[in-house]
Design brief:
With about 130 residues, this protein is an all-alpha fold. It is built from 7 helices and no strands. The protein has one domain. It is globular, with a radius of gyration of 15 Å.
């Protein structure tokens, strides 16, 4: 698995961390909700990668709170990629990235993941 594939695969980890649709309760909890409705209606519900790409394509039109949320998610993603890259290589090298396949692979091997990866996943879950 090449470095780019690892990055793409680790992005799928976000499905583990942010899976499920949280109710829209306030702009503070979901700062990009209005922008997503306005600019990204074409994105399939639950496709967080496509939604992120869409929002990034409208970066100049986003609120400061939404931009901050995207930056925070990017930073979390980098920490997860760094922490879990070896686990992705070890357990998921034959898995084609995309569609949540890497996330499912890691979930299947959750008891075997390195402590570094487990810690990063737990921290990301607690700060989402």
């Amino acid at each position: 698995m090449k470095g780019r594939d690892i990055i793409i695969g680790c992005v799928a980890l976000m499905g583990l961390l942010f899976g499920g649709a949280a109710p829209l309760t306030s702009a503070q909890e979901r700062p990009c909700a209005e922008e997503a409705k306005k600019f990204c209606q074409h994105v399939q519900p639950g496709d967080r990668q496509a939604l992120t790409r869409c929002l990034k394509g409208h970066m100049n039109d986003l609120s400061a709170a939404c931009k901050d949320r995207l930056q925070a998610a990017k930073a979390r993603g980098k920490r997860l990629r760094d922490a879990c890259a070896e686990d992705v290589r070890t357990f998921c090298s034959g898995i084609e990235p995309g569609g949540g396949r890497i996330a499912q692979c890691l979930k299947k091997h959750r008891d075997q993941l390195s402590s570094t990866c487990k810690t990063a996943l737990a921290k990301a879950r607690s700060t989402r």
